[in-house]
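dumping this here before i forget
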Amino acid sequence: MPTIEQNREMFESFEWSKGGDEWSAEWGGTSYLWHGTVFPRIQAFVPTDSILEIAPGFGRCTQYLTGLCKQLTLVDLSQTCIDFCYERFAEHKHITYLVNDGKSLDMLSDDSYDFVFSWDSLVHVESDVLKAYMKSLGKKMKNGGFGFIHHSNLASYRDRETAELTVPNLHWRAETMSAELFREYCDEAGLRCISQEIVSWGGDILSDCFSLFTKEKKKQTKKIVIEENKDFMKEAFRLKHLSEFFHPESAPPEEEKEPEDTGSILDRLEKDKPLFHDDGQGGLITWYSNKNLLKTIEDYIKPGMQTIEIGAGYSTVIFLYRDCFHTCIVPSQEEVSRISSYCEEAGIALDRADFRVGQSYQILPSLEKTKCDLIFIDGAHRFPFPIVDWFYCAMLVRKYGLIVIDDIDIISCHILYRFMLNDPHWEKVDSRQNFAIFRKLGTHDYPIDWQGQPFGENRIQSIDDLVRAFYPKDYLLDEGSTYAPAIEELEGIMKEIKSESVKIDFLASKVRRAADLIEICRANLRTSENEVKSLLAETDLQPGEKKTEEKD
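structure:
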């Protein structure tokens, strides 16, 4: 994740309501992003004769590159993006527009570019794509040319033993790409990586990397400069503050005072401990969501995002603090008043808040079908309310948007959690303690009803059937299990999917089950390998070495 086809679909279907500028909101706008963050990192290499921009989108950075070269080439896998750029920059006759297959630059002439640039796009491409691009750039760049590429570093968080990702992938970064791999790809392409700034894109995870590289006439051996910058987003926050402070409509404060450093809004909430909910006994309490969950939400959400929340509390304050267009479904007006009062005292604007008082099962169907970026389900927990809430929310969240479910240790929420784990239209992004986050990959509708649905197709006639339905990956991993059951089922699946008339939903469910079975086999292999290593360690033997008997 994500594949070339998913990237193409994502950017072909994206609404582009603000022409890509929506992704600059944390900087206070694209101008502040460019002049305060991007340009200082590339200004040593421009202006120049020829620039190649890979994946320009709707031209967020292109508008500034146009005046920095004599010839500008734009390459994108999305026809929609290239068409928009063609119209947007029609007056600039020195621009060439090209659509590619998402990884090839064969249509470009060799030794043609002084500077290669890509910002906030190739973070979504996996290692095989970036490897292909770097191989091509080794031919397409001029000797003495430079390049600046923004890519993923998420693969550095993979467990070396299991290859599992150890951190959530909230920002849809490529999971197989890292700063280390980029250096390898440069070497293989005859390029030299000069420096890398590895940054966090919200939170503490160093998920992104800005890599600077060059094509040299003569290969040099110079030490690469690598820097980790967990405070990168503070740069954005500072620029956003400047954009608001030095603004024609900015108003002077009523009294001059030093700004208070309160840290994150979550830190402030923990310090203030506001009480928002009735405790059922005439007093007040706050039903406190998991701190890790609140921190994850705070790090992920961006200004201008469309969000929905079922329930209310500290999370509501966080959504509003981060300038989201936030719909909050809450059971009582009193809770709305308490949260609003706290926000006003804390200087948090309420103009983007849309409080709906009532029951979620009545309000959700009436909401405008705006595609949301994130929905937080944390309302009534008794059965079947979480499932009913999810049913409507699954239609309201956009493709590749997120749904967050709290309290998955409660049975009604846990049933929903298990369904989403086993459904091919949802991808687990994170699950820790008692919450889970899923990314929507497609519609949850099944034209042939329950058949072909991985969760729904299970028939329960015994406890074993129930366990298999809820825990398919773990079912064959009990003590003493062998490869035989998994291999036997895999062989059966291969026979089933060879039919020419197989339905797509059926095929998807069988492929997903096959992937689970392969993982089971891998787990058994790892167990066997560890057992062999343990036995060898006890006998002081190396693999392949035979033990010889001592003779008198």
